[in-house]
Each structure stands twice: as C-alpha cells, then as structure tokens.
Design goal:
This protein folds into two domains: 31-113, no CATH class; 124-255, Rossmann fold, CATH 3.40.50. It has helices at 3-15, 20-28, 44-48, 61-73, 86-95, 135-147, 164-167, 170-174, 188-194, 217-224, 239-250; strands at residues 32-34, 39-41, 54-55, 79-82, 102-105, 110-113, 124-129, 151-155, 178-183, 201-205, 231-233. Helix 6 runs parallel beside helix 11. The strands form three sheets. It has a five-stranded parallel β-sheet, with helices on both faces. It starts with a helix and ends in a 6-residue tail after the last helix. It has 256 residues and is an alpha/beta fold. The relative contact order is 0.11.
C-alpha cells in the first residue's frame, strides 16, 4: 500500500463513503502478507517511499515467482529483483502472472517488472568505476538508481592507473549531485574523487583483485580510511545499496 492509496482511504472516511471501522480493516490487512516462505512488507513504500525489493540469490524460481505474484496482487507497479541468475530469470518469466515482461539485465544480474519512472531527482548521479571488471556492480548500482527515478551518468574504467581518464571527465563529476565510486584492488579511486567534489561520495569496494586484495577487504579498508571528507562506504559488491542510498540523497528536497 502506497501513500496515495492510504490517502484515498482517509478521504473516503472524510466523505462518509466508508466507516472508520472499514478503513481500519483495509489498513490492518495491508502491512504484511505471510505466504509461507516469506512475509511481504506491503507497507514499505508507505514508510520509505520505495516498495520492497526482492533479493533473488538463494531463492528458487518458484519462490521468486510467488513473491512477485503476491506483489502484483497488491497492485505494486514496479518490482525490482536483485542478484537474479539468467536461469532463474527465464523460469520466472514463464511462470509469473503479469502482462508486463520481466526485463533481465545479465551484467547486473537484475530483473525489472513494470515501467521505470522518468527521472525526478534533484540532479544527476554519477557512477564511476576503477576498471571494466567492476561493471557488474556498477550496473547494479546504475540500474537501481534509474529504477528509482534518477538520471545516471556512467564513467567506467577511469581508475587511478590512468588518472587522466578521470580528469578528462571533470565536468561530469563536478556537476553531480551524488557520486558512486566503485573499485577493487586498493580502492584508491574513491579517495581521489572525494578530494575533488563538493557532493556526497558513496564508495563501493568490489571483490576484484589479486590475492592480497582478499576479495574486496583491502578496498573496503582503504575506503573506510579515506582522508577525503564526505565519503561513505557500503559493503563489498553492494551496488544495490549504493544506488538506493544515492537515490535517497538525490530526492531530498531540502538540497534544492
């Protein structure tokens, strides 16, 4: 149940179209739904502005389909499924009861059902990566931000090994409302960007790198220890979390 639906119920009470008791029943049956293997939080959009997102990894195609169908029954207009394998995406597409096709983005391992809204954020979100190998995480972040109504500028493979590549895009990073900096190895890109801009920078360490990078721990520690002010850090490979947080920042009206 979203804010518009809740407001509509309240207006019906005001107009005398329904009783307070009937309204209470509608509201009480909305918060969550137990479908056996999942408790769906149908009030997530009412509380946070964004509906519940499905984390696909570890779930069977049948479980994902059941969750999707329950969301559709509650008239959720846009459904996002993260960490979705190609095989699961194919199975879900065949089983789900919707006229809207599942759009599958293989690089990001992300599925989208429904029409993506037009950008309505304050400004642009820039997503920058140290290398091409970081693109799966970057695409998860970029597509998440776009689904949530943001204009995204992608700057891929602009890492510190060839820092002039980043400097050639200074107008883009200086114009950003939020920057998501994604890097593995030693994760130095985030500190460099953080020292150049006046907007929030979200660092995303990736599990890319040789042995001593420890599957992203080296980049994580480097970003956490950044001397650049205005840098925050999400978990290793968490492109979704970075895209979500960037969207929240880009929709804060008091930033205007």
């Amino acid at each position: 149940m979203n804010k518009q639906e809740t407001l509509a119920i309240l207006k019906k009470i005001q107009a005398g179209a329904i009783t307070p008791e009937e309204a209470l029943l509608n509201l009480c049956t909305g918060p969550f739904e137990d479908i056996g293997y999942a408790n769906l939080d149908h009030h997530r959009e009412l509380r946070q502005g964004v509906p519940e997102v499905i984390y696909g990894e570890g779930k069977t195609p049948e479980q994902i389909t059941g969750i999707v169908n329950a969301m559709i029954d509650k008239e959720q207009r846009l459904i996002l499924i993260t960490r979705l394998s190609a095989g699961a995406a194919k199975a879900v597409t065949e089983m789900v009861k919707t006229t809207e096709p599942l759009q599958y983005h293989q690089t990001a391992r992300l599925g989208i059902i429904g029409e993506v809204q037009k950008p309505d954020g304050i400004g642009k979100i820039v997503v920058a990566t140290g290398g091409t190998s970081d693109m799966p995480v970057a695409e998860e972040a970029s597509l998440t931000a776009e689904v949530l109504g943001n204009e995204v500028v992608r700057l891929y493979d602009v890492g510190v090994a060839g820092i002039h590549r980043l400097f050639s895009r200074l107008p883009d990073i200086m114009d950003a409302q939020v920057i998501i900096s994604i890097a593995g190895m030693e994760g130095a890109l985030t500190s460099v960007i953080g020292g150049l801009v006046d907007c929030p920078v979200i660092g995303v360490p990736t599990s890319i790198g040789y042995g001593a990078s420890f599957n992203g721990i080296a980049a994580l520690l480097s970003m956490l220890n950044s001397c650049a002010s205005g840098v925050s850090v999400v978990n290793i490979d968490n492109g979704f979390g970075a895209g979500y947080l960037a969207s929240m920042i880009n929709h804060k009206k008091e930033n205007r």
